[in-house]
Structure formats: structure tokens, C-alpha cells
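Human: I would love a firmer grasp of how sequence relates to backbone shape in proteins. Take your time, and here it is.
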Amino acid sequence: MVIPKQHGAWAMLIIPFLFGIDIGQATWLHFPLFVAWFFLYLATYIWMLVVKKQATAHHKKWLAIYTFVALIFVAIPLAYKPTLVYFGLAMVPFFVVNIYFAKKKKERSFTNDVAAIMNFSLGGVGSYYVGTGAIDEKALFLFVASVLFFVGSTFYVKTMIREKNNPRYKWASWVFHIGLIVACIAAGHGWLALAYVPSGLRAMYFYGKAMSIKKVGIYEIVNAVYFALVIIMFY
């Protein structure tokens, strides 16, 4: 098998989808939809290698397998809710952005990361829709909450690794996290601010400290689990 090396993407793949189930309505269609979502992610990872002309015959074999499995399983929820196809269409522009940066070999670009976050979060909205058949304020909430959390995560990881000596990234990260918490409180959603407080604290406390990539990733997984639990328990 070919497994993506971007470990942080797993949280982006799973958490918004779980929000869609928890905030929306659980249905058996979530199972084939998630299987399709999972294998689509695996396929797109290899597709980016193809774009960069780094894919081997082994990669291409698994690209075909992953794509086939994704198509088989997505056909099930599509048969019941054909309008799910619109979510796929909504993801195309962001996927094009990812392809552009892959061709330029600038996958670490902040813009590229945000485009990927948008698609992962749209997956959460699709999960919500397959259970409720609606796009309402709850769907908008899970989308925005997911995007904001993972954008903050992107800021944090960059300031700890690739942009650790870039003061502009430091201040952008700090302003983003503090502003997010203040905005939640000002809007009367103190409980939501609690979901983002650890993100703000770790962005400032860990900045400038020597830390291995593995440790940065472990802390971020813990933070993502905390964020997910707060949303699931209080919303």
C-alpha cells in the first residue's frame, strides 16, 4: 500500500466528518461515504505525486486501486442522495489550487494548506448533509469551526518548523489565535472559545522552543482531540 506521510491531514480527514455525524443525523450511508472519502484522500495523495512526476509504477497501481474503491463506495450514497455530487464540484477549485502548487513544488505554501483545509471541511458538510438532507446554520458552523481550527494548526506548525525564524508568521499566528478567542467571547460563545484556548496557549508558549517534528505532531494530535471533544460535548 501507499500511505500519505502528512500525518496532520488525518485529523483534517476525520474530525470534520465526525462533526457531520454528531451535529447532524447518523445514518448507515455514513459508512460507505467515509470509506469513499478515505480512499479518495489516498488517491489524491498519489495523484499529487503524478503531477510532480514522482510517481512510480507501484504508486500508479495503488492510485488505480484507491480510485476504484472510492468510486464503488461513493456510488452508494450518491444513489440515495444524487445532490451529493455538488459537494464534489465545490471541491474542484480547491483541488486545482493544490495541483498548481504541486506542479510548482510549493506544497508547503500557506495558500495550498488553506485550500486543502477548505476541502477537508467541505467533507464535513457533506457528512452532515447525507444525514440531514439540509445545509443550514449547523452545517455552516461545523464548516467554519473546522476551517478556523485547522488554519490555526497550520500557523502553529509553520512557526515551529519551516517558519520558526520568521517574525511575520509568529505575529500572524498570535494575532489569529487571540483574535479568534476574543471573537468567540464577543459573540457570546464562551464555550466555543474554550475549544480554541489550548491552540492559542500552545502557539505562544511553544514558540521558539526546540522541539522535534514528532513531538510537535503529537501535541497537535492531542490538541485536535480536545477540540473535537469540546465541539461534540457542547454543541
